[in-house]
Amino acid sequence: MKKKILIQFAGLLLFSATAFSQQYNQDYLDSLIQNKVQPLISRNSKFVITGYTTAGAKFAKDDTKFNGFSLNPILLWKPSEKIFVEAELETELEGNETVINLEYANVSYFVNKYITFRAGKFLSPYGIFQDRLHPAWINKLPTAPPGYGHDGVGPSAELGFDIRGGIPLGSAKMNYSIYVSNGPVLNTGVDEPGEEGMLSYENADDNNNNKAFGGRIGFLPLSNSSLEIGGSWQLAKPGDKGSVYESLKTQQYALDLTYVKQLDFIKGLFDVKAQWNWVNVDKADYIDPDDPTGNTMYTYDNKRSSVFAQAAYRPSMSPNKFLKKTELVFRYSGFNPPVGSKEPDKIKQYAYGLNYWINWRTAVKLAYQSQKNDNAFLVQFAVGF
Amino acid sequence: MKRNTLIIAIAMILTTGLVIASCVSTKVTDKSGTQLWSENCQRCHNTPPSSAFTNIQWEVINTHMRQRAMLTEDEIKKITEFMQAGE
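ok -> structure tokens follow
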């Protein structure tokens, strides 16, 4: 009996000690959280990691492979009501090499309701594809249209600053982005024969003191914001300082169109996107890549353009759960190199896609892409996170 | 070339017709968060459900969207409140 009481007493003592210890620890932890951790949690909790990843496959006559593996983490941080930071790292396989690119990294300051000042590296507000549609979880096809990419027809990213925002105009509204950046660099063909006269973008080093001036103005005339028409431009001098190309000028223009609306009579979402790009560079003499001695010069009218027009339909109002997650896509794209240049021929491409949306940012995309001597069946799994 | 021009012209006429058919007039500043959410997100990507992010994450994500989609402060406030309400 005594032994039993002793055990119970010992148990009570142990429980009390533990309880006291827990109470002490809880008080300590509460105080620690309140005084030290909470401010940090508050600040850090406004930090979000999002992004997307892709995996794909291409089935073509002489080129069948698994490809398109990429991981693009996006870091978003809101340290205060007025300041916002965003950055995206593009990690992908090029051959057997893992390549990491800083897609964008910039700081925004919200000046007022309608003006945002942004500085750093940002996607070019040139049309809609690069700025809005290129991420794999947004792009409705596994590929980008011809003329897009880091050395495409028109800029892809800028290093500089811009001011941007939206303005309500009664039942309509508009948006704008105007920037100054390092601008493009003219490829003279010395290091890359066959690419003379082309422009490269996203330049961290400015090859001359000239800065590019560009922007985009978008107008949404309808009250339901379903239609947007945009015009973009960029003016710059792309030639190296001190070279014969220093005084050359380039004018780049783009027009874009967006129409997205859920329409009752087709029981689904109808989505149209289109963009036309024109890049003009002043005429200049370049080394003829066909002459191995490098002594022959040649020239041509350096004007190139590209276009894409895409239509998609998703029966989002269908009672069938499977059907409402499927989407049909068609895209026509074209690329026109300068007449007389040594660049590859013009491209006309047709793409037909069938997507299945597992959730709002995860899709399995099947597509057949057709162009001269290059037809392929493409599969892509795109996951936003 | 003529065929492509014809295709683009037909597409533009069709789009114009659809646009006219879908016109309803409401002042942008009078729109609710629900309406702004349903109209603006889908212009680029699928419309996210409110459960996609926590309330604090929505604040950050929508600040990102304010900058990227060039929405006004009022528009993004209404959309954020709607998403945080979890409706």
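The CA atoms of residues 41 and 47 of chain B lie 5 Å apart.
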